[in-house]
Amino acid sequence: MDDATLLAELLPTAERLVDRHLGIAKEWFPHDLVEWRAPPVAGSPVPLPDGVASAVFVNVLTEDNLPYYFASIDNLFGRDGAWGYWTRRWTAEEGRHSIVMRDYLIMSGNIDPVNLERARMAQVTGGVSPHAVTIADAFVYLALQELATRIAHHNTGKALPDAEGYAVMKRVAADENLHYLFYRDLVSAALEIDPSGMMEAIKRQVLTFEMPGTGIPDFARHARAIARAGIYDLRVHHDSILRPVVLGHWDVTGRQGLTSSAEAARDRLLQFITRLGRASARFKDEPRVALDNR
Questions:
Q1: Per-domain boundaries in the chain
Q2: Predicted structure pTM score
Q3: Would you identify the CATH topology of the domain 20-27+48-282?
Q4: Of 41, 171, 172, 176, whose CB has the highest number of CB atoms within 10 Å?
Protein backbone atom coordinates (compact mmCIF):
# COMPACT_ATOMS: atom_id res chain seq x y z
CA MET A 1 0.00 0.00 0.00
CA ASP A 2 1.44 3.40 -0.96
CA ASP A 3 2.01 6.14 1.62
CA ALA A 4 -0.90 8.36 0.60
CA THR A 5 -3.39 5.50 0.75
CA LEU A 6 -2.13 4.27 4.11
CA LEU A 7 -2.32 7.78 5.60
CA ALA A 8 -5.86 8.22 4.27
CA GLU A 9 -6.98 4.83 5.59
CA LEU A 10 -5.48 5.56 9.00
CA LEU A 11 -6.80 9.11 9.35
CA PRO A 12 -9.80 8.13 11.55
CA THR A 13 -7.43 6.17 13.79
CA ALA A 14 -5.04 9.12 13.99
CA GLU A 15 -7.91 11.45 14.94
CA ARG A 16 -8.99 9.07 17.69
CA LEU A 17 -5.46 8.65 19.00
CA VAL A 18 -4.84 12.41 19.03
CA ASP A 19 -8.05 12.90 21.05
CA ARG A 20 -6.98 10.14 23.44
CA HIS A 21 -3.55 11.72 23.85
CA LEU A 22 -4.98 15.15 24.63
CA GLY A 23 -7.31 13.58 27.18
CA ILE A 24 -4.46 11.83 28.99
CA ALA A 25 -1.51 14.22 28.66
CA LYS A 26 -0.92 16.41 31.69
CA GLU A 27 0.19 20.02 31.58
CA TRP A 28 3.49 20.57 33.39
CA PHE A 29 6.21 23.19 33.59
CA PRO A 30 9.99 22.74 33.69
CA HIS A 31 10.39 25.43 36.37
CA ASP A 32 8.19 23.39 38.73
CA LEU A 33 10.58 20.43 38.56
CA VAL A 34 13.93 22.21 38.81
CA GLU A 35 14.74 24.57 41.68
CA TRP A 36 16.47 27.69 40.43
CA ARG A 37 19.57 28.39 42.48
CA ALA A 38 23.19 29.28 42.02
CA PRO A 39 24.90 26.37 40.23
CA PRO A 40 27.49 24.56 42.34
CA VAL A 41 31.06 25.74 42.04
CA ALA A 42 33.23 23.62 39.77
CA GLY A 43 34.20 20.29 41.31
CA SER A 44 31.81 20.47 44.27
CA PRO A 45 29.17 17.89 43.25
CA VAL A 46 29.90 14.19 43.60
CA PRO A 47 30.78 13.03 40.06
CA LEU A 48 28.21 10.80 38.44
CA PRO A 49 29.22 7.22 37.63
CA ASP A 50 30.52 6.91 34.08
CA GLY A 51 27.44 5.19 32.64
CA VAL A 52 25.03 7.58 34.33
CA ALA A 53 26.97 10.62 33.14
CA SER A 54 26.91 9.23 29.61
CA ALA A 55 23.19 8.59 29.87
CA VAL A 56 22.23 12.13 30.87
CA PHE A 57 24.62 13.52 28.25
CA VAL A 58 23.13 11.37 25.47
CA ASN A 59 19.55 11.87 26.65
CA VAL A 60 19.62 15.66 26.52
CA LEU A 61 21.52 15.79 23.23
CA THR A 62 19.04 13.39 21.67
CA GLU A 63 16.23 15.76 22.61
CA ASP A 64 18.26 18.71 21.25
CA ASN A 65 18.21 17.16 17.78
CA LEU A 66 14.47 17.81 17.57
CA PRO A 67 14.58 20.04 14.45
CA TYR A 68 15.66 17.08 12.32
CA TYR A 69 13.10 14.71 13.80
CA PHE A 70 10.36 17.27 13.17
CA ALA A 71 11.48 17.77 9.58
CA SER A 72 11.41 14.04 8.88
CA ILE A 73 7.95 13.49 10.35
CA ASP A 74 6.54 16.68 8.90
CA ASN A 75 7.65 15.66 5.41
CA LEU A 76 6.12 12.21 5.76
CA PHE A 77 2.86 13.07 7.53
CA GLY A 78 2.06 16.44 5.95
CA ARG A 79 0.65 19.49 7.71
CA ASP A 80 -3.08 18.94 7.33
CA GLY A 81 -5.63 17.53 9.74
CA ALA A 82 -4.81 15.16 12.58
CA TRP A 83 -1.45 14.22 11.08
CA GLY A 84 -0.16 17.79 11.00
CA TYR A 85 -1.61 18.60 14.41
CA TRP A 86 0.04 15.56 15.95
CA THR A 87 3.45 16.45 14.51
CA ARG A 88 3.26 19.97 15.96
CA ARG A 89 1.95 18.82 19.34
CA TRP A 90 4.60 16.12 19.58
CA THR A 91 7.29 18.67 18.72
CA ALA A 92 6.10 21.06 21.43
CA GLU A 93 6.17 18.30 24.04
CA GLU A 94 9.60 17.03 22.99
CA GLY A 95 11.01 20.57 23.10
CA ARG A 96 9.99 20.82 26.74
CA HIS A 97 12.04 17.71 27.48
CA SER A 98 15.31 19.27 26.37
CA ILE A 99 14.49 22.41 28.39
CA VAL A 100 13.87 20.61 31.67
CA MET A 101 16.78 18.19 31.34
CA ARG A 102 19.23 21.00 30.56
CA ASP A 103 17.88 23.07 33.46
CA TYR A 104 18.45 20.13 35.78
CA LEU A 105 21.96 19.46 34.52
CA ILE A 106 23.02 23.09 34.85
CA MET A 107 21.51 23.56 38.32
CA SER A 108 22.83 20.26 39.65
CA GLY A 109 26.33 20.80 38.31
CA ASN A 110 26.39 17.15 37.26
CA ILE A 111 27.84 17.93 33.84
CA ASP A 112 30.28 20.43 32.35
CA PRO A 113 28.05 23.00 30.60
CA VAL A 114 30.82 24.01 28.18
CA ASN A 115 31.32 20.43 26.98
CA LEU A 116 27.56 19.98 26.76
CA GLU A 117 27.09 23.08 24.61
CA ARG A 118 29.97 22.19 22.32
CA ALA A 119 28.47 18.73 21.88
CA ARG A 120 25.05 20.25 21.14
CA MET A 121 26.56 22.46 18.47
CA ALA A 122 28.32 19.47 16.90
CA GLN A 123 25.21 17.29 17.11
CA VAL A 124 22.81 19.78 15.56
CA THR A 125 25.29 21.04 12.97
CA GLY A 126 25.96 17.44 11.90
CA GLY A 127 22.27 16.82 11.30
CA VAL A 128 22.43 13.04 11.74
CA SER A 129 19.00 11.53 12.35
CA PRO A 130 17.10 8.36 11.49
CA HIS A 131 15.27 8.49 8.17
CA ALA A 132 12.38 6.20 7.28
CA VAL A 133 11.65 6.02 3.57
CA THR A 134 8.01 4.95 3.91
CA ILE A 135 5.13 5.75 6.23
CA ALA A 136 5.00 2.13 7.37
CA ASP A 137 8.68 2.19 8.32
CA ALA A 138 8.24 5.52 10.11
CA PHE A 139 5.36 4.21 12.24
CA VAL A 140 7.33 1.13 13.27
CA TYR A 141 10.57 2.97 13.98
CA LEU A 142 8.84 5.69 15.98
CA ALA A 143 6.97 3.16 18.12
CA LEU A 144 10.19 1.28 18.93
CA GLN A 145 12.21 4.46 19.42
CA GLU A 146 9.69 6.17 21.72
CA LEU A 147 9.52 3.11 23.95
CA ALA A 148 13.31 2.77 23.96
CA THR A 149 13.65 6.43 24.89
CA ARG A 150 11.08 6.11 27.66
CA ILE A 151 12.96 3.15 29.14
CA ALA A 152 16.34 4.88 28.84
CA HIS A 153 15.03 8.05 30.50
CA HIS A 154 13.35 6.15 33.32
CA ASN A 155 16.40 3.99 34.02
CA THR A 156 18.61 7.08 33.95
CA GLY A 157 16.36 8.73 36.53
CA LYS A 158 16.61 5.73 38.84
CA ALA A 159 20.40 5.83 38.57
CA LEU A 160 20.72 9.53 39.44
CA PRO A 161 21.73 10.32 43.03
CA ASP A 162 19.09 12.97 43.78
CA ALA A 163 15.30 13.16 43.96
CA GLU A 164 15.15 16.17 41.64
CA GLY A 165 16.90 14.31 38.82
CA TYR A 166 14.63 11.32 39.29
CA ALA A 167 11.52 13.52 39.15
CA VAL A 168 12.71 15.20 35.94
CA MET A 169 13.46 11.95 34.16
CA LYS A 170 10.28 10.29 35.41
CA ARG A 171 8.19 13.18 34.06
CA VAL A 172 9.91 13.08 30.67
CA ALA A 173 9.57 9.30 30.51
CA ALA A 174 5.84 9.59 31.15
CA ASP A 175 5.48 11.83 28.09
CA GLU A 176 7.55 9.45 25.99
CA ASN A 177 5.27 6.62 27.01
CA LEU A 178 2.24 8.48 25.64
CA HIS A 179 4.11 9.09 22.38
CA TYR A 180 4.93 5.39 22.23
CA LEU A 181 1.28 4.44 22.72
CA PHE A 182 0.25 6.69 19.82
CA TYR A 183 2.65 5.02 17.39
CA ARG A 184 2.18 1.52 18.78
CA ASP A 185 -1.53 1.69 18.15
CA LEU A 186 -1.05 3.20 14.69
CA VAL A 187 1.04 0.15 13.80
CA SER A 188 -1.65 -2.14 15.20
CA ALA A 189 -4.28 -0.45 13.03
CA ALA A 190 -2.01 -0.50 9.98
CA LEU A 191 -1.44 -4.24 10.43
CA GLU A 192 -5.17 -4.76 10.00
CA ILE A 193 -5.20 -2.68 6.80
CA ASP A 194 -1.98 -3.86 5.16
CA PRO A 195 -0.54 -6.83 7.08
CA SER A 196 2.02 -7.78 4.45
CA GLY A 197 3.41 -4.29 3.96
CA MET A 198 3.60 -3.71 7.69
CA MET A 199 5.27 -7.07 8.32
CA GLU A 200 8.04 -6.18 5.90
CA ALA A 201 8.40 -2.75 7.53
CA ILE A 202 8.61 -4.31 11.00
CA LYS A 203 11.31 -6.66 9.80
CA ARG A 204 13.33 -3.83 8.25
CA GLN A 205 13.11 -1.61 11.30
CA VAL A 206 13.82 -4.29 13.89
CA LEU A 207 16.87 -5.56 12.02
CA THR A 208 18.36 -2.09 11.49
CA PHE A 209 17.18 -0.28 14.63
CA GLU A 210 19.49 2.31 16.14
CA MET A 211 18.81 4.77 18.92
CA PRO A 212 18.51 8.35 17.63
CA GLY A 213 21.75 9.54 19.25
CA THR A 214 24.16 8.13 16.69
CA GLY A 215 25.25 11.61 15.58
CA ILE A 216 26.38 12.59 19.09
CA PRO A 217 30.16 13.07 19.40
CA ASP A 218 31.85 9.93 20.77
CA PHE A 219 28.51 8.13 20.80
CA ALA A 220 30.02 4.62 20.70
CA ARG A 221 31.93 5.18 23.93
CA HIS A 222 28.85 6.59 25.64
CA ALA A 223 26.74 3.67 24.40
CA ARG A 224 29.18 1.17 25.90
CA ALA A 225 29.10 2.99 29.24
CA ILE A 226 25.29 3.14 29.20
CA ALA A 227 25.13 -0.59 28.46
CA ARG A 228 27.59 -1.44 31.22
CA ALA A 229 25.44 0.55 33.66
CA GLY A 230 22.40 -1.52 32.64
CA ILE A 231 20.48 1.59 31.57
CA TYR A 232 19.98 0.42 27.99
CA ASP A 233 21.56 -2.64 26.43
CA LEU A 234 20.71 -5.66 24.30
CA ARG A 235 18.92 -7.38 27.15
CA VAL A 236 16.68 -4.36 27.79
CA HIS A 237 15.98 -4.02 24.07
CA HIS A 238 15.04 -7.66 23.70
CA ASP A 239 13.11 -8.15 26.93
CA SER A 240 11.34 -4.78 27.17
CA ILE A 241 10.71 -3.92 23.52
CA LEU A 242 10.91 -6.76 21.04
CA ARG A 243 9.18 -9.44 23.08
CA PRO A 244 6.29 -7.40 24.56
CA VAL A 245 5.65 -5.19 21.51
CA VAL A 246 6.68 -7.00 18.33
CA LEU A 247 5.85 -10.51 19.51
CA GLY A 248 3.18 -9.52 22.02
CA HIS A 249 1.12 -6.47 21.16
CA TRP A 250 1.60 -6.67 17.38
CA ASP A 251 1.41 -10.49 17.44
CA VAL A 252 3.56 -10.94 14.35
CA THR A 253 3.46 -14.71 14.71
CA GLY A 254 -0.33 -14.81 14.52
CA ARG A 255 -0.84 -12.61 11.43
CA GLN A 256 -2.74 -14.31 8.61
CA GLY A 257 -3.07 -13.71 4.89
CA LEU A 258 0.51 -12.63 4.26
CA THR A 259 2.17 -12.61 0.87
CA SER A 260 5.08 -14.98 0.31
CA SER A 261 7.47 -12.03 0.66
CA ALA A 262 5.90 -11.02 3.95
CA GLU A 263 6.04 -14.62 5.20
CA ALA A 264 9.75 -14.65 4.45
CA ALA A 265 10.14 -11.32 6.24
CA ARG A 266 8.38 -12.71 9.30
CA ASP A 267 10.63 -15.78 9.33
CA ARG A 268 13.70 -13.56 9.17
CA LEU A 269 12.29 -11.31 11.90
CA LEU A 270 11.60 -14.19 14.27
CA GLN A 271 15.05 -15.67 13.66
CA PHE A 272 16.62 -12.32 14.44
CA ILE A 273 14.69 -11.85 17.68
CA THR A 274 15.63 -15.37 18.81
CA ARG A 275 19.31 -14.76 18.05
CA LEU A 276 19.21 -11.37 19.75
CA GLY A 277 17.74 -12.98 22.87
CA ARG A 278 20.58 -15.47 22.98
CA ALA A 279 23.16 -12.77 22.39
CA SER A 280 21.73 -10.53 25.10
CA ALA A 281 22.05 -13.35 27.61
CA ARG A 282 25.72 -13.86 26.69
CA PHE A 283 26.94 -10.31 26.17
CA LYS A 284 25.39 -8.06 28.77
CA ASP A 285 27.88 -5.27 28.09
CA GLU A 286 27.28 -5.21 24.33
CA PRO A 287 26.25 -1.64 23.38
CA ARG A 288 24.89 -2.33 19.90
CA VAL A 289 21.18 -2.90 19.50
CA ALA A 290 21.35 -4.66 16.12
CA LEU A 291 23.56 -7.59 15.19
CA ASP A 292 26.15 -7.22 12.46
CA ASN A 293 25.03 -10.02 10.14
CA ARG A 294 21.54 -8.82 9.29
A1: 20-27+48-282
A2: 0.91
A3: Ribonucleotide Reductase, subunit A (1.10.620)
A4: 172
